[in-house]
Specification:
The protein is of the alpha+beta class. It has 5 helices and 5 strands, in the order ααααβββββα. About 10% of the residues have low confidence.
Length: 174
Amino acid sequence: MCSSKKSPWIPTMVYVVDDSRSSDSLSSVLRAAKTELLMSRSILPMLPQRTDRYQEHIHQRMEADKERQRQYHDRHAGSEIRPLVPEQQIRVANHQGTRAPARVIRKGNEPRSYVIETANGNRLRHNRRHLRPARHDCQNTDHAYQATGTCIEDQSTETPVQTPEQVPTAQHPH
């Protein structure tokens, strides 16, 4: 009798099932809908239901599950990035894979965004994850700054390269 197409009687069947559950009389509670008796199981209604019929303990369990999932996610989501303050010297990621000097003007309107001013005077809005606080040993904005986090001027002053005539030769006793 059932075809693969949806039956036009499904809304009526669901209405009868839902109506038998909603009545408060003892006779309606004791008698089940004919479709439920025929199928030996309760029928889930396909029509929208009133929210006052929802069972509160199910809603509470769903909220507890959601909270537990949030806690597991937050545990592995990473740490919070410290906020930046106005006039703080920073380095901003650019397209060449290096970080250019800039300074924070103010916090942006969007979450985790900041309005910054680059060394050439452009004002841009950037997400916090693209901004790094400048190191204290390289505050001069004229210095280049490599992706490794070292100031290029600091590298040139470390150890001078010795020419071959300056390198002492080792004396081996025979």
